[in-house]
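Entry 12.
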Amino acid sequence: MVKQGDVPKVSFIIPARNEEKFVEDCLQSLLSLDYPKEKVEIIFAEGNSSDRTREILERYAERHDNVKIFDNPTGNTAIGRNICIEHATGEMLMDFSAHTVAPKNLLKVLVPKLSSQPEDVAGVGCSNVSPEKQNFVGKVSGAAFLGFMAGSGIFMQNTVFEEERFVEHMAFTLYRREVFDKVGLFDPDFWCGQDAELDIRVKKAGYKILYTPEVQVKHYKRQTARALFRQMYRYGIARAKMIKKHPDTMKIFHLLPSLFIGGVILLLILWMLAIIPLVFLLILGLIYLILCFISTAMVSRNPLIIVSSVFFYLLITIGYGLGFIRGTVYGKL
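Predicted 3D structure (tokens):
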């Protein structure tokens, strides 16, 4: 156990809504951290859950005085994070998720790393991996997010680097508290993607975000294909809104899913008009299949996951692409 000494207090910022399947594992991991208990504050903004999330949180709050619950009647994740920040007393703030499990050494790694950095480093983040007991949908989507056909660039927070480096965004980041005083809180217009939008403002304010490979959290992915599609659709809307708010952040890979949808529709029209032969479409489809298999095989050796990933790449791409189109035309989530 790390000795208390002069180590900074850390507040975990956790919005939660309908997380009964995962929130207990999350809490158990945070209460077991190799860090002085008096220096760990676990704050939940509970968003009117319709399951047992509130009951579980209250049970833990009764037994542990460093677990705190505040109401978030809107259910808005960004507002929930802001509620947590407003009640936080820590010198460092850890952006976290109720469906994530922390390793014991999470703060033992991140706190000294951030403390040793110059003041222009706003935070230190780490990657996330899927837990072993993740269901099949979660395992396949987790592999897909790590593959070059879906993960790289668009979903930077899912990328696993082998070396320490500065990045544009990390989903699980320990921030200096004063950063929020300078750049403001999470934007409530972003029901999802608000952490990525915050990091845009963080970088524009002259700060850097450091990634470390020395620790990883375990993050449960969506448990059904429908939930994953909905998540990707909302991510697409959020990215389009981010580009509207920060036009200088647009990159070509943000457009690729929407261009993919448009390209498929165009090719089908050209085939129906007998302008291109069916064999041309079949060759393109075969190339797509091969790329999907290679992408997944680079991160998983499970044949069933590799084969199934084709459907999930399509689901991720189409969901994100349609969301991006909608967000471009009409940005409200």
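Annotation: The chain has two domains: 10-221, 231-329. The chain is about 50% helix and 15% strand.
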